[in-house]
Amino acid sequence: MYMIKVFLVEDEVVIRDAIKNSINWEQEGYEFVGEASDGELALPMILKEKPDILITDIRMPFMDGLELSRLVKKELPDTNIIILSGYDEFEYAKEAIKIGVEEYLLKPISSNVLLEHLGEVASKIHEKQKEYEQRERRIREMREKYLSFQKKDCDDNINSIKSSDADFDINSVDDLKEIQDAIADFLSEGSPEDVPHFVEALLDKMPREHFRSIILRQYVIVNIFATVTSFCKKFEDKVEKTQTEEIAHLQELKDREKLLREALATAESQEDIQTYMTQLLANALEVRNTVSDRRYSDVILAAQKIIKKQYMSEDISLNTVAAEVGMSASYFSTIFSREMNQTFVEYLTEIRMNKAKELLTCSSLKTAEIAFETGYRDPHYFSSLFKKTQGCTPKEYRASRHGKFTVQWRRYNQLSINKRLIMIPFVAIMPMIVLVCYLVWTVSSATAAYAGINKNVERANQYVRDFKERIDYTMYLSVIRNKSINELDIGKTTINGIVTVNPYDYIEELKTVCDELSESATVDINRNQIKRLKNSLKSLKKNVAELEHNIKNNELYDANMKYLDDNIYELTALIQSGIQNYIYIETTNFEEVKEALDKNNERTILLCMITAMVVTALSICLSAQATKSIIVPIRKLCKMTSKVAEGDFTAKTKVNTKDEIAVLAHNFNRHDEGDWSFGG
Predict the structure, then answer these.
(1) DSSP helix/strand/coil, 675
(2) How far apart are CA 267 and CA 263, in angstroms?
(3) What's the whole-model pTM score?
(4) Over the stretch 70-85, which tens digit does the pLDDT of each residue have?
(5) Which of 87, 122, 203, 446 is the most exposed place for a label (fewest CB within 10 A)?
(6) CB count in 10 Å sphere of residue 564
(7) Short-list 112, 102, 116, 91, CA closest to 56
(8) What number of other Cβ atoms are within 10 A of residue 253's Cβ?
(9) Spans of all domains in the chain
(10) Chain CA centroid to CA 180, Å
(11) Residue 353 has what pLDDT?
C-alpha cells in the first residue's frame, strides 16, 4: 500500500518530540519525512519532500501556521493540512477553513486522538489515489484501443478509397471554411436550444454527394472537432479546482476525443455527421455557459446601474444596454431574463413606475410632467401603463396617498374639545412611558446576561483544578496499590490535601455540569467547546475502565504507569484546558456585553432625543390646533352677539365642527325664533 508522507512543524521542542516519538509511523502506514521549528524554515523542506499530510502549529516565530498553510496550498494544492493550536478562536478557524485546512485541533492532544484524525485524512488520500489509478488505467486502455483502431481504419480506407472516393470533389474543401466560420459565430452567441436547427441548416448547404467520400467525411469531422476544441480551449484555464460543476463539464469536453474516434469509425453519411456535430456543439455550449455564468452577475449589475441612471431617457432600449455591457441583444436578453426572473422591459417599467409613484407622492408635478420625467413622451400611454401595472390611475394613486392624512385630520377636528385636550398629554406621555419600559428591559437584560456569565464561570471554576488533581491522584493510587476503585478509600483527604473520588461518578457529575453550561453558554464557540469536553469525558471514562481492567488482571506495574501517563493524564489535561478556555471566553464576553450595553444606551439616548423632539412638535401642533378650534369659533360668536346687542337679530354664525362650541353656535342661531334656551 502507498505510504502516506507526513511532515511536522512545531516550535515547542517538547511537543514536537512527543508527537514524533509517540507514534510508530511506519507501523501505522505513514512515512515521517521531516520536521521543523518554524514555517519559514519548513517551507523549502516541504516543497522538496511534497508530503501528503502537513501537521503544523498556528503560533510560531517568523512565519505562523496560517501563512505556511496558505503558501503550501498555493504550491502543493493536494497536500492535506492539520493545524494544532492552543487558541480556540473563531477567527483562526475561519481563516483555516478559507485556506482549505482539513482539520483544526486544540492542544494538548493525545497520540490516539491525533492518529484518529490522521486516519480520516489518510482515508481520503487513499480514495483519491484509487480514483487516480483507475483514471490512468482507463486512459491506457483508451490509448491502446485508439492505436489499434487507427491501424485498422487506415487499412480499411486504403481498400475503400478506390471504390468510394470516385465522387470526391476537391472543391468541396473550400466549403469547409464557411462551416468553420459559421460554427465559431454560433459558439459565441448561440443557445443550446438552437443547436439541432443550426446543424441541420448548416449541413443542408452542402450537397449530399460531397459526403460519399470517406476522405471528405473524415476531413469534415476533424475540422469541426478542431474548431470546437480551439473555442473551448480558452475556457479551460478559467476553471478553478473548487468548481466541481465546471470540472464535470470540462471532463465531458475532454471526452470529445472519444467522440472523434467514434465518429471517424462510424460516420458513413451526412446524418451521422449531423449527430456528431449536435452532440459536440451542445457539449461545448454547456461548457461556455457554465464558465460564463461567473461573470453574469457582474454583467447584470452593470446593466442595472445603466438602467437606473438612464431610465428617464426615451432612447434607452435592450439594444443600447446590451451594447454598453458588450453583448449581443439576443444573448443579453436571455441571460437577463434568466438571472432576474423578468424581462428587460418588465424591469425597466418597474423602475419607471417606482419613480413615478415617488413623484406622485412627494411632488406637485402634473401627470404629463411626471410621464416626461420617467421616460415617457406620451402622457396617455403613461397613464394607461400606470393603471395596468398599479391597478389605478396616477390621479387616483396621488389622491389615495394624500387623502389618508386629510381624512384622519378631519376626524380629529370632529372630536369634542374635551377629547382633543385629553389627547395632548396622552400623545406626550405615552411615548415616554414606552421608552422608559424599553430602558428598564435593556438594563434587566444586561443584568441577566452578567448574572448568567458569572454563574457559568463560577460553576466551571469548581473543576478547573480539582478535577484533574482528583482523577489523576485517585488513578495513581489505584496503580501503585494495585487496587480497583471500589477497594480504595474514596472520599478521604490525603496527605497532600487532595480528596480521592470515584472517577466514574465524578466524570458523570462533570457531564451534567457540561449540559447545564451548554444550555446557558453565551456564545456558540463555547457550546462547541462543551461538546468537545463531553467527548473527552467519554474517552476518559473508557480509559479509566481499561486501566482498572488491567489492574484486576494483574498487568505489570510499568505498563499500567505508562498507560496512566499516555492516556489518563493527557485526557485530564485536555479537559482541564477545555474548562479553562470556556472560562476565558465567558469572561471575555463580559466586555462584549458591556460594549453592547453601552451601544444600546447610546441608541436609547438618541431615540429618546428624537422621540422628545417629535412628541414636542406634535404636542405643539395639536395644542395650536385645539386652541385655534376653540378661540376662532368663540370670536365669531362674540362678534355675532355684539351685532345682536346692537339690534341686529338676523346675525348668525357658522361652525364646521361637532364639538361643544358647535352646540353653542346652533343654539345662538335660534335667537330669531324667540327660543333663548341654551340647552343641548
Answers:
(1) coil
(2) 5
(3) 0.31
(4) 888 888 888 899 888 7
(5) 87
(6) 20
(7) 102
(8) 21
(9) 4-131, 168-341, 343-413, 442-611, 624-673
(10) 43
(11) 92
